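User: Hey, my collaborator sent me this sequence without any context and asked if I could get a structure. I don't really work with proteins. Can you help?
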Amino acid sequence: MFAIIFSLILFAIFMTGSPGPGNLLMMAGGASLNFKKCTYFLTGLVAGKTLVNFLIFLGLGAIVINNNIIFEVLKYLSSIFILFFALSSIKINEVKSSDSKFNFKNGFIIHPLSPKTWSMLILAQTQLINLNLNQFQRSLIIWIIFTCGQILFHSLWCIAGAILGKSISNNLIVSRLILFITILFVSWFLIFG
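Assistant: No problem. I've predicted the 3D structure and written it out in structure-token form, which is a compact way to encode the shape of the chain:
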């Protein structure tokens, strides 16, 4: 049992710590605002992933993964939303006006629309099947592990952005550069993902 949980923790570290739209947007928020002002956005990200975990617990995950049309629709909706969010954030003339973009609602919508989130949480479920746990127990373990990883790594990416923003005299340029990298990442995902 320990080996399976340990491998799940390593998987969660890789999935929640690697660059992705949530981490890159948190970094851009840290660069243009600060960690404190991004906490509502972070709370939205966590709540959105919690919703996905709950929907998988209810059985919706099998429908999403096994239906290519739904999976592709999620892929494009997620990409469109993230691209819209990043592009509208780049257009911001003053740093203070970006406060309204990094809110709970915008954070909440990212993970439910993300095929990566659905895939990784469903894959995590399959790693725990041999432990003779019921669906609720598996979902709870996965939720705890991924939420801890998500809070830790989203926070670290945000703090890294804040440090980067403070170390360069014009942090608006830094946040725009990070948002541009996010746009490139999402575009690459759309083309090759």
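In plain terms: The mean pLDDT is 83. You can pass these tokens on to your collaborator as they are.
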